[in-house]
Amino acid sequence: MPDYLKEAIELARQGDALAAPNPMVGAILVKEGERVGQGFHTYEGKDHAEVLALAEAGGKARGATLYINLEPCCHHGRTGPCTEKLIEAGVARVVAAMEDPNPVVAGKGFEQLRKAGVKVDVDEAYTADARRLNEPYVHFRETGLPLVTLKAAVTLDGKIAAPEDNLGWITSETARRHVHGVRHSHEAILTGIGTLLADDCRLTDRTGKTRSRPLMRIVLDSQLRIPLDSKMVKSCRSDVTVVTTSAASEEKVKKLQDRGVNVIVCDGPKGRTDARQAIEWLASENYHSLMIEAGSKVNWHYLAAGVVDKVLLYYAPKILGGLKSLPVVGGKGRLRRSDALQFENLTIHPIPPDEFYVEAYYVKDS
Predict the structure, then answer these.
(1) What is the pLDDT of residues 141-161, one digit of tens each?
(2) What gap in Å lies between CA 26 and CA 96, rounded to an integer?
(3) Cβ neighbours of residue 31 under 8 Å, at least 6 residues apart?
(4) Catalytic residue numbers?
(5) CA–CA separation, 167 vs 362, rounded Å?
(6) DSSP 349
(7) Contact partners, residue 323, CB within 8 Å, separation at least 6
(8) Are 305 and 202 in contact (CB under 8 A)?
(9) Residue pLDDT, tens place only, 257-277
């Protein structure tokens, strides 16, 4: 027998980077063992997955069962409540993988359906998969902040840069291709001015896949040293934000703004930018995910600020050694082993033939 809820989760995945800032949702309508309608949400398409499935099913929706990865909405937003449309169409049963953590829904959608006589089941066997699918959305709804992932390519001895010659790549093309897939799934990406000056990077989404909104590229630059002729600035299409301090030149700010660059001031201690303020700004702009691809100092700055949620470390079968090669995390660090930053839920993902990446979640101070 088909596993319709599992299929709904996979169907929802087709909305990767297309549904943002909304969650990815897949819906399948089944009647008497026959799939009569299905759909997945895209932000540009506007209609929710349930509505698309109902449209395809037509009159066959009456008496059907809806399989869906997320609780149907019950409020007015860009569209009307999906619960009302399901009730009007005569859907008899809804099987969902999880409740919507959005406070305006949060069980209310299920309640409306039940009051109208629709049978509702939440299959907890799929809840973890459904939460993982929409991890940034769930995190944002539960914390009010975007999910922050620190990514780095490292040697086996934890180095990200050599002291003299940094031409070439640490990891293979296969690993880099995977990273770009991860970058595509994020809504914003951040680096430091040191990395930009060293690499003249663009930090664009180079997968070639369609997105619902541009990848917001963010540069931490306390003294506004970013060159006006850098690839980042020259490629700006209202998708670059520079985070600076009140010490920045007003003239330079104006020149960047004239080129379409957004400049925000986030004053932190000792003349640096404030990590948490930058994250809160992203939240205010409704960004649910941020990927950090930066150098040692920025990595420590964000880890020490307690705003990193998880790490993705891509390991290559290489060793640089020495005391001058840069480690993945620099800065002041922790001075005692007992004070080391702690991680949990660690998973090792192989990248054949000889590479792997580590995914782990930062245990924050309570």
Answers:
(1) 999 999 999 999 999 999 999
(2) 10
(3) 57, 60, 61, 63, 64, 65
(4) 50
(5) 31
(6) E
(7) none
(8) no
(9) 999 999 999 999 888 999 999
